[in-house]
Amino acid sequence: MNVTIKKIADELQIAVSTVSKALRDSYEISAETKQKVLECAKRHDYTPNPYASSLKRRITANIAVVLPEVADSFFSAAINGIESVAYEKKYHVVVYLTHDRKDREHSILHDLRSGRVDGVLMSVADGPGGSEHINDLANKGVPLVFFDRIIEDVRAAKVVTDDYDSGFKATEHLIKKGSTRLSFLSISKSLTILDLRLRGFLKAHEVYGLPVNKEMIVHCDDNDEANNFERVKKLLELKDRPNGIVGSVEKVTTLAYSVCRDLKLKIPEDVRILGFAHLQIAALLDPPLTTVTQPAFEMGKAAATILFKTLEKKIDSRSERLVLQSELIERASTR
Amino acid sequence: MNVTIKKIADELQIAVSTVSKALRDSYEISAETKQKVLECAKRHDYTPNPYASSLKRRITANIAVVLPEVADSFFSAAINGIESVAYEKKYHVVVYLTHDRKDREHSILHDLRSGRVDGVLMSVADGPGGSEHINDLANKGVPLVFFDRIIEDVRAAKVVTDDYDSGFKATEHLIKKGSTRLSFLSISKSLTILDLRLRGFLKAHEVYGLPVNKEMIVHCDDNDEANNFERVKKLLELKDRPNGIVGSVEKVTTLAYSVCRDLKLKIPEDVRILGFAHLQIAALLDPPLTTVTQPAFEMGKAAATILFKTLEKKIDSRSERLVLQSELIERASTR
DNA sequence: CTGTTAGCGCATTCAC
DNA sequence: GTGAATGCGCTAACAG
Lengths: 335, 335
Hints:
The structure is a homodimer.
Chain A (H helix, E strand, L loop, with lengths): L4 H8 L3 H8 L7 H13 L6 H8 L4 E6 L5 H16 L3 E6 L4 H11 L6 E4 L9 H8 L4 E4 L9 E5 L1 H14 L5 E5 L5 H16 L9 E3 L5 H13 L6 E4 L2 H13 L9 E5 L2 H6 L5 E4 L2 H18 L7 E4 L2 E3 L6
Parallel strand pairs in A: 1-2, 1-3, 3-4, 4-5, 5-11, 6-7, 6-8, 8-9, 9-10
Antiparallel strand pairs in A: 10-12
Helix pairs in contact in A: 1-2, 1-3, 5-13, 6-7, 8-9, 10-11
Chain A binds a DNA duplex through helix 2 and helix 4.
């Protein structure tokens, strides 16, 4: 049995409310009483039950982070950013993984309606289906902030990067480097961020007067990685295979790299790859990979900050939208 | 205001206890009453308050995972494993990051004494200092399971890999490949797993009659990565620089790779690298890296499973110890 | 300054 | 089969 506020009150022959106030350092308690209470609490290693207080104060000090996965370095860094501000605020971070499955996302959000957490940060799962489960959450009054993988139609705060622009810039960069047949590797037809990046890719073609070959837009959305590998392999075995590849997310960027290895294609002589990826990964590759790097840590931090602003000041942030800049980083070859 | 059990009782003109029982599908409630209650609950989108029930039942359905960081792919995979079993058990995973700082670890564990979670999974932070904070947790009756980075002296369940053996095998492999001057890159003098891997490294020297040069054992334990980089660089600039490197964790393995790039050292001609790392990383490198790969996902899963066994059956698992095998994986060169 | 009282939402006796 | 009462641990009026 754990020691409670009541135990302390009994031992000290005072009222529980006095103990409660003393522990919260209320101004209406005398210094000496506080001393006694504090001493007794320390002696018994008293630890307040957070959920009892939560019941009363209607604050759980928990926030949820709902993610597709955590293998990717983007989401790892985002968790770091989120955790860093949560730690400051003395909040706790409950992590949920959807594995990019809508059914899981549904059941997770369904559960979150209960008041288990004070707010939710999320990056949506890929897949078809509406957003009723998200609206259900909102209807329960649970504040929500999207980051990276957002749903445009849902009225909630959003933290994103300049996906259209970076898709454009990445493509432009390859074109300027001399690539003439460009491929776009995606993982989804339905995710907004990927659609935007693809549009940037297409826009660059338009601006630079390059034709678009639809065969070159490949969706690696198979759960079986081997299939995705084959899909990219087939692309690179075409007679008029691309000499430039835009990897729209880290997974496919590295996938392209692996396939090139497998086919013994020279990078960048045969194929030039430019992709969304974390710098640490890029630094290991040889030849070095030009990357579009998202400020993942900052995005997590920003999203969490907006959430806490909502929580604390009860401000309605549902129409807020923060756009952070991705960076296109080219590394010098060391060969 | 959320709809509670009481609201339903009022609306249906029945007692709250009846509603409570009906919702839990108690045998002592008639089928028709259950129907009515369930219908009404659904209609109002009733969601039970988990913390109210927690107060009564003394179960929070939360477990904590305390980690040094989440950048590394080892811990990402471990979280995946943990989450997968937690999801099955309808438990929630609260993630805490120590950033390898003992003071943070202390404050986190201190907080966890409160009963916020039903159990704790942890991989300890590096650094000097005792383990009173861990014992304090145990004294509060919070079950704890260590994984990977354990503390031998603490009486708690432990899930580890065969660190001594894999340290030996890694070194042996390099020796057999022809490396004669071996370096061991570590990140800590105090972590058990690293000490074991180092001992395996030393043992291999003994077995194969190779001298050990203490200068070759480098600790990259600086918070500033640039300093660690310099440290390894200095090592590789020695006149009798190593021609074989054992990277004891992913971070230093990739670091060694980067430094070799920087110094334009040929791998494996000039220096052969073999390190603990995730396969995905290894697959990207060229020339391919021979790795010791820990079953991170399985470790997380195993640790969580042990924790739940303790939680459910109230079995004392404090002397349990599970040793999983790491794999030494060599990739064929594609050059 | 301190104590009494009344919940927070739910689950569990124990009557009826 | 149902309901009234009690309490989980804590906080917040409101008295005194």
